[in-house]
Amino acid sequence: MKKILLGSTAIVAAAAAFAAPASAAEKIKLGLGGYYQSVFVLIDEDVADTRTDSMKQEGEIHFLGETTLDNGVTVGVNVQLEGYTTDDQIDEHFVYFEGGFGRVQLGAADSAAYLMHYSAPTAIAGHGVDSPNFFHASQPGTNVLASNYTFLNTTGDANKLTYFTPRFSGFQLGLSYTPSLAAGTGGSSNSYGNLPDNTPGQQEKIVEIGANYVNSFGGIDVAFAVGYLTGQQEVDAAGFDDQEAFTVGAQLGYAGFTFGGGYQKNNMGLQLEDDMEQWNVGLTYGFGPYTVGAGYGYGSQTSGAGVKDELSTLEIGGTYEMGPGVSLMAGYFRYDFDSDLAANRNTSDAFMVGTSLEF
Question: 19: how many CB neighbours lie within 10 A of its CB?
């Protein structure tokens, strides 16, 4: 059977070679990109038996390639390798097709609602009061809030199909569909066999919609975004619900200043007394090679049992750009976990110095 298939393929290819003119497009060639962030942190927190100093790092190496076909469509690939040992060694990995019709993206990547969102800006690479790579506090007890975030990250890098429209007069729409989270949110091959279904608490058929408006008026940069997520339970189960979430965010920029904030309301796929709500606000100022700024984020969620957990984050810091892609950074962070349960409380003060490389 395989020989017949290969033979047929060869015949079709040969016929196409005689029937079509030679292509001017080039085969995809891979290049490298990525980033690396390394920080030293002093930490003073209430949780017992935790370190007062720590060396942390985060980085990725990106394999990037694309080509433009004779019909004008650009086809590309993006594979991101984590720069440290982890269970999710390969981060995002996807292919895309882009042209006058917009952009179609297939594979393991963030959703349209995530990618099109705006929130509080930060002056410190890898940090911020919204979805940071670095978080310098211990999550206490059973407090459900691990960090502050308004980005829709329910599906993470799970395998999905995404489409972005072209941008018209500053407006753009995006749509993502994730069939299942059964393989996790880190992306997977799924090339052999099938995934389980009817798992209590598991969401499926997740649709995410994003829209934003980006423009400039008289030196003022404006960005506004909204996002929506809806999912379904694989099977009805006590304590769980079909997931639904909404986000909104904006940024304004003028004369080196950037001001912005974001908001998210999310039922987390649970039957909660009060849905998770998160909001943040931030301001940065860039002058020459320097950027300084501050931000504040707050989140809360009340369980079906009536236990309310809260988390607030304060950040103050700045960055000095030594050269292209090379920066030094420093900052102060205060994390305040609060809860109706004493075991879910913690306050952490952290001072950080570090470097950020982009390549």
Answer: 7
* pLDDT for the residue 16: 40
Radius of gyration over every alpha carbon of the chain, rounded to an integer in angstroms = 23
Tokens 């809260």 belong to 310
pLDDT tens column, 231-264? 999 999 999 999 999 999 999 999 999 999 999 9
Q: Which two tokens stand for residue 258?
A: 């950037």
Q: Which residues contact 78 (CB under 8 A, 6 or more apart)?
A: 62, 63, 64, 92, 93, 94, 95, 96, 109
> Which has the closest alpha carbon to 242: 274, 277, 203, 185?
203
Instruction: Supply the CATH classification number for the domain 32-358.
Output: 2.40.160.10
Give φ, ψ of 190 to 5 degrees: 55, 25
Show me where the domains of the chain are located. Answer: 32-358
318 backbone dihedrals φ, ψ, rounded to 5°: -165, 175
Which segments of the chain are extended strands (E)? 31-45, 53-68, 74-82, 90-99, 102-108, 159-164, 171-180, 203-217, 220-233, 244-254, 257-266, 274-287, 290-302, 308-323, 326-339, 346-358
Specify the DSSP class assigned to residue 344: G
The model's pTM: 0.90
CA distances from 263 to 225, 277, 279, 300, 308 (A): 10, 7, 4, 12, 19
